[in-house]
Amino acid sequence: MEKVKWKVNGMSCTNCALTVHKYLEQEGLSNVKVNFMGGDVSFELGNGTTKPAIQKGIEKLGYHVDTGEANQAPPRKKLFRNHLQRFAFCLVFTLPLLLHMLPGVHIHILMNPWVQLALTLPVYIVGMDFFGRSAFNSVRRGIPNMNVLVTIGASAAFVYSLVGSLGPNPEQYLFYETTATIITLVFLGNWLEDRTVATTQAALQQLTVSQKIMANMIAFDDQFQEHVFPVESIHLKVGDLVLIKTGEYVPADCKILSGEASINESIITGESIPVDKKMNDLIIGGSMVEQGSIKAYVTAVGEDTVMSHIVQLVKEAQAEKPPVQQLADKISAIFVPLVLSIAVLTLAINYFFTPVGFTASLLRSIAVLVIACPCAMGLATPAAVAVGLGRAARNGILFKNAKSLELFKDIRQIVFDKTGTLTTGAFHITSFALVPGAGIDEATFKQIAFSIEKYSNHPIAKCIAAEWKTRPELRWAKTLEIKGMGMQMTDKEGNTYIAGSYKAAVALTDDALHSVYLLKNNQLLGWIDVADTIRPEAKTVLSWFKQRNIKTILLSGDSMHKCREVAAALDIDEVLAEQTPEQKMERVALYNQQAPTAMIGDGINDAPALAKATIGISMSDASQVAMQSAQVVLMNHGLRYLPLSLGLGKHTFITIKQNLAWAFVYNIIAIPVAAFGLLSPSFGALVMGLSDVVLAINSVRLRWKRVA
């Protein structure tokens, strides 16, 4: 199935997103994801459906689809580009309508119903062009949005005033200012909401903007003379040569051909200390050269770059709905019909059972319509999630889905892999020895070890292969990697060689303290000792979990002796050593049954165990981010950011609960207040607009709040 990713402009609330989501599912599309905050829509085409037909269907709902294609037709030209322009236009006509309400101000001409109609009509037309279109399309699709309430409220006051203007006593029925004020203030509220919601997307926008920079492209003329000229990074292709100087951004993923430089990768990894890069090193688009000048060739552009993968991961995570949002979505789907029912009841009860009369009853009903805020419940979760994910990405923490943010709040124990996670993974050989009667010399011993270990991706094997690289190397007729034990090779004469852990030599020696044992035809030849270094930040990270009563567990395939050394140094609660990948998976599954468990590993050898954890966390190089299967990725082996990831998860969920509480309390209090006539429709419209701003501001606090 073809996966389609579009930008859909015009979605202003969760009900808008639900409308689009419901339409796409009705058309038989699968894996539908709609993120109204970023305007991102993705789905997989089903049989018999075409992209033009789906695009046309979405645009019939009142939204504009940006497919990213060069030959796409332009959207319908609108009267105004944004809510601020609409608000400014409406304000010009609304202010004169409000002048006669000021004490001591009596402008006779403004009391004329036809003058008031002339002032209100432009505001009403602009309001219906926006609110009316959206309301009609949402009702047609069966998911009425908040614009239905605004449209009915403003239209009720307008029609009532218009009918009254035709009667014998028009001055008793003039509520044109109510219509104009509702529309004007809702536009103001929408603009304020747009501004604050945009703030929640700031981190993602920063990553996106970093992809659009200028590059110094190198080209050669017929005489092979080098020329440098500026081009936009979006025009670069794989294989192009570029010159990057001090203070300039890396325009795309590149490999250095010549020169050295200090590269600031903080936009990707969250680490502000520059990293020294030299010839043949990879550099990531969006990072900055702080010192030095380099020539490089482009290795990836567009959607294939590391930065694009990061942006896409964050967008996909925002589109995912955590469990806590499901209740809010269900309420949002029925909220508008519920408010309409309450408004009708308000009109009926006030008119038939109180002495206030029809006019006051109608105004109270209109106030109920405009003060109710379904957007508040819809915005509560996405706003907090967007800020949480954005702050995480800015610090080199990538959440694959929003569900992980919520799950972090329940974590009671965390399982650590040892090599490359708590330790640097940068091994070096400290000693080696041949057993008496091995029948080979040291040179042959090294040759055998190198020839075996060069075929393994294990960090210890890579260390031995790098330090003992020899020529000539041995050739093998058969190679086999035995998980949890090591490498087994067979030469053309049928001799079997093994380089592996103590498990391979357990029947041949009682000495289990060495790193690698070398065997030939089930006879021990000798052993090799390698050393690794505990990460300097590991002690602080483990202490953070101790202080919060989160159990720490070391789960490793390494020897018990070495695992206990690391565990003692870091004060780890429990140690399980010499575990195969299958045993790791079983252990993590067992831990997960006991209590919610997170596991952190390198994301490759530990992939099965990571999948069994409540949350799998991978330590990764930035260049491998797209290949990780874990739910959370710590860029550039950023163990120091592990507490921040848990803290962000916990505090994002706290913010979501605060937002939902505000949304429910606001509507529970505001609607009865309006129904009892304690505030006017105009003031209700202003309060409704500001209610969303409160949610967005509370969510934005996550950008600076101390969470770890």
Automatic annotation (TrEMBL):
Localization per record: Cell membrane; Endomembrane system
Transmembrane domains' residue ranges: 87-109, 115-136, 148-167, 173-192, 331-353, 365-390, 660-679, 685-704
Molecular-function GO term, any one: P-type divalent copper transporter activity
Enzyme Commission number(s) of this protein: 3.6.3.3
Gene Ontology CC terms: endomembrane system; plasma membrane
PANTHER family with a match to the protein in the record: ATP7, ISOFORM B, P-TYPE CU(+) TRANSPORTER
Similarity annotation: Belongs to the cation transport ATPase (P-type) (TC 3.A.3) family. Type IB subfamily.
Protein name: Cadmium-translocating P-type ATPase
Lineage per the UniProt record: Bacteria, Pseudomonadati, Bacteroidota, Chitinophagia, Chitinophagales
Gene that specifies this protein: cadA
